[in-house]
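Lecture 7 notes: from sequence to structure.

We start with a single chain of 274 residues. Read the sequence below before looking at the structure.
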Amino acid sequence: MEYDPIKRRLGSVFNRTPFLRKVFYSLLDLLLLRAWHVKKELRLLRKKSFSGKIRILDAGSGFGQYSYRMCRIFSGSIIKGVDVKQEQIDDCNAFFNSAGLHERVNFETADLVKYNKPYCYDLILSVDVMEHIEEDEVVFNNFFKSLRKNGVLLISTPSDQGGSDTHDHEHDEVHGFIEEHVRDGYAIDDISRKLQHAGFGDVEAKYTYGVLGSLSWKFSMKYPILMLGISRGFFIILPFYYLLFFPFCAILNWLDVSFPHKKGTGLLVKAYKK
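Now the structure, written as tokens:
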């Protein structure tokens, strides 16, 4: 399934007012398991690594929800969001201007394969991006060069254990739930090796979306998206669907975030520049 048309439909609903946009961000924080994991790691980084104002790159900023979250977690910090899609960049700049955050957060169109700002950032966040980029090692090199000394790269991406919800292979093509992915996902050894080759000294990687988390993803994201892909009429049913299933999914999300996993369909990776 192509995910981008569904995202555009959602954006058209929640972009009508700044209030609705903030509601949208809150809903994403509640429903997306990856957001639970990312927020937890960002708060840990604030306590352990970054006590003052820092410069942050949101690499593949999308709707801007993580930029919005980070400007609240890292008070006073300066955040740059980049994405290849001009429509999303324009949309994010318009919202952050209306929210009075434009002095701290701004967005620009950029291709991560070419984006390189030497010694500019203390923290780089990349959520659901690397699975879309063929030249991943080039991007990892750019990330390393763009970080300052003691900077941190935080990545959330699918693992090779079904992270793209891939069921079979035919003629060496990936057939997954999200058709825009260029790879099934990463093995921990693979992404760790690539990051170390780029220059990162310490790399910490762990599985997310264990058995319970993957079950939550199906009920909170996969099935609703499939319904919206069939007809826009499901927007009417969606609030009632979530009233029924969200408490169940929230418990599963909490369990997934609270306990380690021997395997999982997602990866959370931290890499440090010494």
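The longest helix spans residues 234-258. Keep this in mind for problem set 3.
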